[in-house]
Design brief:
alpha+beta; 3 domains; five-stranded mixed beta sheet; two-stranded antiparallel sheet; 13 helices; 11 strands; globular
Length: 384
């Protein structure tokens, strides 16, 4: 504090000024009665437990999810800074992730949302816990994430992936990474979407874009997840996947000749009247993702007979639902190259397909982390 406010250090009433400001503006700290020294009184940060309670810092626990050691914390507070610009859905998901971190993972909050942020947020992990892979549901998911980081990708940002519990990027890994090295599991689950006509899954990847980019959209557009498979008719096929949690679609408007060339093919899915509206800011990113799928399907190499884009979004994300609905109106009747799939429906299909299979425990953990918001209702009310 002194380093940040050098102009105040020499004032005689420095301590009283600080105390008055903390009392008035900082709801996350409290004065510890009777505790202090020659420099002044002692305050406690509620987010990290009672600074005067040695028992809150003693011992260490073990998470049942990953087996990693955690700090012993006596019910750390997890209040989120208010953000007047976020939707009620985003605010609710922040509270749920805060609940999950505190109650399920039993970890103290970190700072974010960026690498050099100093704001404590309940939906962020501390660096030591991020490096233990605590943002992922299983050790296998974390291994896939580490593998992807080592390979490198322009759209995989390590801080967001490892620290931010509210980001769609770790959510994507938590949902699709278990399929990457278990193609039998991937086949079983993808067959639960009969619209795709899956016979056998042959490859699963996270953060994928075809190369060379100049032969497709000539930019950095990529799929969050990608599944290649053999179609029931014996041909090669693929599914590109865009995942959304609270991030929302990019509002950047991109429109290039490289994009428009893929709207001219005989199999293009857009209505003739859609040409002037496909690039609208509300669904521009969705259009680009769909374009990438069409570019792969209709590429002159004719590697694939079938290809589609699937949007996987949270069922409570009304903005995402509206964007998908508006975009769907631009497509021809009967088109199957774009699927809008709320994640509760996808997970429900997968759970039915798995039945009593032992691997369904990962899917139950996913539901608790992202879909079962009733579990954090009491927590949300306490931190409103």
């Amino acid at each position: 504090m002194r380093a940040g406010h050098q102009e105040l250090v020499t004032r005689r009433n420095y301590h009283s000024m600080v105390g008055a400001h903390l009392s008035k503006h900082c709801s996350d700290v409290e004065l510890l009665d009777g505790k202090g020294n020659d420099d002044g009184v002692l305050w406690s940060n509620r987010l990290c437990g009672n600074a005067g309670d040695e028992t809150a810092r003693a011992g260490a626990g073990t998470s049942a999810d990953t087996g990693a050691q955690t700090e012993g914390v006596a019910r750390p507070r997890a209040a989120e800074p208010a953000d007047s610009n976020e939707t009620a859905f985003t605010a609710r998901m922040r509270q749920h992730q805060s609940w999950y971190r505190e109650v399920v993972l039993q970890l103290p909050p970190g700072t974010g949302p960026h690498r050099f942020s100093t704001t404590v947020r309940g939906s962020m992990l501390r660096p030591e816990h991020a490096q233990q892979g605590r943002n992922f549901l299983t050790p296998e998911v974390y291994r896939v994430a580490q593998e992807r980081l080592r390979r490198g990708a322009r759209n995989v940002e390590s801080f967001r992936l490892l620290h931010n519990m509210l980001s769609s990027q770790p959510m994507c890994f938590n949902l699709f990474a278990p399929l990457r090295h278990d193609l039998e599991l991937a086949t079983l689950l993808l067959r639960a979407t009969p619209e795709l006509g899956v016979d056998r899954v042959t490859a699963v990847d996270i953060e994928f874009a075809p190369r060379p980019v100049e032969e497709y959209l000539a930019d950095g557009t990529s799929f969050d997840a990608y599944i290649e498979y053999t179609h029931c008719d014996g041909s090669r096929a693929f599914l590109g996947i865009e995942t959304k949690l609270t991030d929302g679609f990019s509002r950047t408007v991109c429109d290039t000749p490289a994009y428009r060339r893929w709207m001219q093919g005989s199999r293009n899915p857009w209505l003739p009247s859609a040409a002037l509206r496909v690039a609208d800011a509300s669904h521009n990113q969705l259009w680009r993702d769909h374009l990438l799928a069409i570019a792969m399907r209709d590429h002159p190499s004719q590697r694939y007979r079938h290809g589609a884009l699937m949007l996987v979004r949270h069922p409570l994300d009304q903005r995402g639902a509206e964007s998908a609905r508006d975009y769907r109106r631009l497509l021809r009747d009967g088109d199957t190259s774009f699927l809008d799939m709320p994640m509760d429906q996808l997970v429900g299909r997968w759970r039915t397909a798995l039945g009593s299979d032992d691997r369904s425990s990962w899917l139950r953990s996913f539901e608790e982390r992202y879909l079962e918001l009733t579990k954090s209702r009491e927590f949300a009310d306490e931190h409103a």
